[in-house]
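Deliverable D4.2, example record:
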Amino acid sequence: MRHALALAQRGTGRVSPNPRVGCVIVDQDRILAEGWHNVYGGPHAERDALSKLNEPPTPSTTMYVTLEPCDHHGKRPPCSDAILQSGIRNVVVGMQDPYPQVNGKGLARLREHGINVTVGVLEDECRWMNRWFVKHGTTGLPYVILKLAQTVDGAIAPVPSRRLHLTGPQTQRIVHALRAEVDAVMVGLRTVQIDDPMLNVRDVDGRDPIRIVLDPDAQIPPASGLVQSARQIRTIIVCSTSADPQRLQHLLDLDVEIVPVQGTTEQVELAAALHSLGALGIASILCEGGAMVATRLITDRLVDELRLHTAPMLLGPGHHPGPLPERIPFRLHAHERVDADALAVYLPVTA
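Output generated by the structure prediction step:
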């Protein structure tokens, strides 16, 4: 199953909003075939592995797959059909698929036809790898990762505001690798005005994410790097329904996508924005700034994962996330040292 998980990772950045899935077919101590979901719309992991199986299965042949095989017609026919036709009699599944069209149906069908099915092997690892597929598939909302880089004294930007890298090169490579993994990166207008970021992937291999700017009145500078590169990298402006129509048209002419949501020309409703972005098939969003957006996401309890990068420095006067109206608890999920920096991953505490 660990090998299947490693195979599943090869679909990173290529299969969303579908899950990353890996599959290994073994007999005794021999690997007979392996496969993974390689691209959205392409063969699922089980069919990919079965297409490489060059010998008939024996009673001990076992398929290991990280996610429950589907039992419905989507872009591809059901994987349960392919397994039944293969003659394999043993299937080990990492986790049950919570997607409503599957959710146990694939497991039940295999068992009804006499297949020996085991579920829950390395389930936590399988669920973590596909955490945004689970969120999007069951709610229609994207999984939101809030990334904050801060100093030891909690500052996330200097005063006066200017572009400044707080963390070191290895931390920045980790962030770029995460950009290549998620569907989209999101910032507020102020971050664009101060930093003029490109929000693309650099220093690591991987595809560029969709860029999203929360911009209530469509005030993003037309000369900004995001707007000027919108024809090369998909770029979305989330604005209010009352945004200036002339500015919107100018952005549309430059191939910027517009997603209007409820709100005012000062502030869009973040929950409405996430609903609209999820409806576009965006299953995961990495929010990289700034302080106001971070505070609102936390206050509205829209953060699924908080990644806090702490640099070993004291900044003194600096910008900090704003005050919260109440105590909002998180629990530590993981932590590691990245060169001189520290990375802590927190998950919200739910009742």
